[in-house]
Write a structure and sequence with these properties.
This protein is an alpha/beta fold. The chain folds into 3 domains: about 5-85, Winged helix-like DNA-binding domain superfamily/Winged helix DNA-binding domain (Arc Repressor Mutant, subunit A); about 90-165 and about 270-300, D-Maltodextrin-Binding Protein, domain 2; about 165-265, D-Maltodextrin-Binding Protein, domain 2, CATH 3.40.190. It contains 11 helices and 11 strands. The strands form 3 sheets. Strands 3, 4, 5, 6, 9, 10 and 11 form a 7-stranded mixed sheet that branches. The protein has a two-stranded antiparallel ribbon with strand order 1-2. It has a two-stranded parallel sheet with strand order 7-8. It is elongated. The termini are far apart. Bound molecules: 2-phosphoglycolic acid. 2-phosphoglycolic acid binds near residues 102, 147 and 149.
């Protein structure tokens, strides 16, 4: 008797969850049905795949090797599926993206370029704050997420695809607006605007403030990059802000980039997914697209 792909997938879910019960829940199967599939696989190979120590389920050496093989087989099948669909010009499916608010300034352009090549992919783009993006990733409610500052409390895989230059900006009539070669200490004493706690931009700003040992006069906290930009233009204060979010306003003189030594601070935008997640063909295809696309051309 030979084994099936389904049995391998059920086995892999048990290995991932370290529990028959949790795997059964994830797979919407009954617990006995899960253990029957695992048993059939064990019978086929004639080795134990799991061992129970205490109350915990562990992979045996044979189990570990089979788990690795299953991941490779799935990867191969995904890329096979993708290239076959591409050959037929009909890669289909749905792509669920969750991105931090600052990514809204470039993601639509990347998605536009992507859709012009793969028109059968339906896309959902959720733009929200960092904590919610993390939550969506944790609950497996999106295929891919975009951050530039990676969360340090999650086990993630990622690919970098674009620079995120961060600049200090002010209103055009700000006293520092036309000064050259400012040092961080020169910013002290002027009103600062901060992003909300948890924002990636705020984390970088705080690090720069700590590094240069300045004590900013933070007069306002705002929940999105857009709100910070509007407050800068309204003359309320200065702030670190992503270059791509203010290209238009800078080009028509509504906002000024301060000439501060050490800036721009260059972060990289990253396409992120939970470690070990099996990407759908559409998600894998989009990751490949973002790595290989000419971002300069897309965003020019
Ligand atoms: P933010 O995102 O909108 O949370 O500041 C930027 C980032 O992830 O670095």
């Amino acid at each position: 008797m030979s084994f099936t792909l389904h049995q391998l997938d059920v086995f892999a879910e048990v290995a991932k969850q370290k529990s028959m019960t949790r795997a059964a829940e994830k797979l919407f199967m009954s617990q006995p049905a899960v253990s029957i599939q695992v048993k059939k696989l064990q019978d086929h190979f004639g080795v134990d795949l799991f061992e129970v120590i205490g109350k915990e389920l562990f992979l045996t050496q044979a189990g570990k090797e089979l788990y690795e093989a299953q991941k490779n087989i799935r990867k191969e099948l995904n890329s096979l599926e993708m290239s076959l669909s591409e050959i037929k010009g009909m890669l289909k499916g749905k792509l669920n993206l969750a991105v931090v608010s600052t990514a809204k300034y470039f993601m639509p352009y990347i998605l536009g370029a992507y859709r012009s090549k793969f028109e059968n992919i339906k896309i959902s783009l959720k733009v929200t704050n960092r904590n919610e993006v993390k939550d969506l990733l944790r609950r497996n409610m999106c295929d891919l997420a975009v951050f530039s500052e990676l969360p340090d409390d999650m086990d993630l895989e990622w690919v970098e695809f674009l620079d995120n230059p961060l600049l200090m900006a002010s209103a055009p009539d700000h006293p520092l607006a036309n000064k050259k070669k400012l040092k961080f200490i020169d910013l002290e004493g002027y009103p600062f605007l901060f992003r909300e706690p948890g924002s990636g931009t705020r984390l970088v700003m705080q690090r720069l403030i700590d590094k240069h040992k300045i004590q900013p006069d933070v007069i306002m906290e705002l929940g999105t990059n857009e709100a910070v930009k509007q407050a800068i233009m309204a003359g309320i204060g200065i702030s670190l802000i992503s270059k791509y979010s203010m290209t238009l306003e800078a080009s028509i003189g509504k906002i000024s980039v301060l000439d501060v030594n050490g800036l721009p601070h260059i972060n990289r935008w990253k396409m992120v997914y939970p470690k070990g997640k099996r990407l759908s063909p559409a998600a894998q295809n989009f990751v490949d697209f973002t790595i290989n696309a000419d971002m300069q051309e897309i965003l020019s």
